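Hi W., the iron/sulfur cluster complex you wanted:
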Amino acid sequence: MSAKITAGDMHFKELNRLIRESAESEIIVDDCLGQRYIGSGVSGKHIIINGIPGNALGAYLDGSDITVYGNAQDATGDTMNKGTIVIHGNCGDAPGYGMRDGKIVIKGSAGYRCGIHMKQYMDKIPLVLIGGKVGDFLAEYQAGGRIVVLGIGFEDICPVGSFCGTGMHGGAIYIRTEHMPKSLPAQISIHDADDSDKEAIRADVELYTQSFGGNADELLGSHFYKLIPNSANPYKQLYVNN
Amino acid sequence: MPVNFFPAEFEVVRNADKCIKCRACERQCSNEVHYYDADYDKMLSKDSSCVDCQRCVCLCPTGALKIRPNENAFRKSANYTQQLMIENYRQAGTGAVLLSSMGTPKDYPIYWDKILINASQVTNPSIDPLREPMETKVFLGKKPSGIKKNPDGSINTEMTPYLELNTPIMFSAMSYGSISKNAHESLARAATELGTYYNTGEGGLHKDFYKYGPNTIVQVASGRFGVFKDYLDAGAAIEIKMGQGAKPGIGGHLPGAKIREDVSKTRMIPMGTDAISPAPHHDIYSIEDLRQLIFSLKEASEYKKPVIVKIAAVHNVAAIASGIARSGADIIAIDGFRGGTGAAPTRIRDNVGIPIELALAAVDQRLRDEGIRNEVSIVAAGSVRSASDCVKAIALGADAVYIATPTLLAMGCHLCRSCHAGKCNWGIATQRPDLVKRLNPDVGAQRLVNLVHAWDHEIKEIMGGMGINSVESLRGNRLMLRGIGLSQKELDILGILHAGE
Ligand code: SF4
Ligand code: SF4
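Structure:
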């Protein structure tokens, strides 16, 4: 059974209380008009949003699934711990900040600072998957997990902005493009993805095509760059005891 | 062999008549200063490794040891001090940034010591705390600005979440990772027994300590280490760390070598990788963004817990605090620049930020002027060293104080300022199991309880002397303070008169 809530101009506090307290595991939010913090820390539910959720959608998400039929805004999946957020549209800045596990799958493009400080721990390996392009500062301070940028529709340009991977010290970034990203910092290395790299993201790409259509083999047939950090201890030589 | 440009900072002085060669000092020293030479049948020492932590001195059974500053002196200059020269040698040798720990040792003005407290004489008699009830209980959080009535005429008694403290003293944030598990356990148990709170710092919460949750403040910093739903649910309050007094404007960095198994589990990151907390929260560029983080935390914790925003005391702290008071935060913690740290670049620690006394007075005044003082409680931190400092802080406008260095002292710290090396001989700022076990949490907790009980009693005594019987009536009561040897500008900022006025 599923519950239906018409958000309209309801205050976010009220909407989120209704979602939290709902006995149903599936909740459909209609006419969502920018209400913030939907699904904050919620576990064990599937929240379907028709409309535009506000900032910090699914912050600290702890094992729920969220599907958005519309665009999402800033700070989606902040410090997310578990679960899946699927966005049938574009996404604003900083999705997946400090994310530890779970998946954020964006059909279109995303803004600045995607996947900042994503981490991983034992079997927890988060994923941010972007169908289109992203802005500057992708994966700043990334400490773990995978970021995949498919660049669909942006084949003529590099689909990531400047300063990608600054301070990165873990995890990996995969970018489907022929164009090398600009102004990469010294502490990351860039490789042409080989077959085993592509196998490593096959399930991710299939998740994308299952969610939004398209052909995974075709996408994986294109050229990908893989970016990884040179060191897990980037600041080792920086200090002297005083 | 390359020339060493500077001598050992300390000199180990061993009284040969007293030394019985028991080698206790050798076993106790993680810096491997002491050693036994069989050929000479003598205890010797490698002075250059000594950090003056005093562990050997305290444990030598015959009192044979003294650690002294090395009296060897470079040619004196008030401008290029010996310390400055050594620092330049160190950097010329390594090309690296100087790293230090604990609060700055530099000779900056300490305003606590330039403020005197009032006492009653003749009129408005003083109160004897041994005979009369004195209230040191405080509540932290938003205070209602008026009485609200329900539609049926009854009084609305709904309150926003708050913290209840039996004494206006809480333990400031120190992460598991920067300090040991036994140190954390001592703090957690003492806070529970005292009816106050300790603070996890940004390193997450060890699974063994969830049971102390009702007396725990859980911190959320830019690195978000160990932050997840259960962690947010575990604490009595959630603190967003925007800054730290000892190192305003820069982030934290726990080297991979300190991320051993247990710390790795608690922070939820792999062993051996650096734990980097970026300087800013990269999703916070405005008060509006801060509001967003506050409310996402409130939503995730279902509005059951107050949210604290901790900032470093910097030049425009009053304006910043005013913004925070309007951002939905329940409590603002202000951390002065003399506060301690487990590791900070020396130049930042010694040069950035402002004293807590001035910051606190400025913030309290600003919030009063703007009529929003009731919107938040203020916690003062960053070198609150004694009960009298507490009283002065409260009279300057604090609702409560955070202490950290005094808690370390209670557990045995001798302020050697080498926490960043990770080899603390007192079992505090280390993760080495052989060192950690030197700190017995039963003893640590008891000594912390003793310390705070003693301070609490002193606070009551000082308040009683002023004829004040509760912290509530002392708060912001600047008429109880007078400055000594301060300029008019300093007095104006502190909002107090000069002694004799
Ligand atoms: S602990 Fe004291 S008595 Fe024992 S060897 Fe060291 S200096 Fe000598
Ligand atoms: S905690 Fe330990 S290392 Fe740090 S100053 Fe105190 S005694 Fe020294």
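Chain A has a mean pLDDT of 94.

W.
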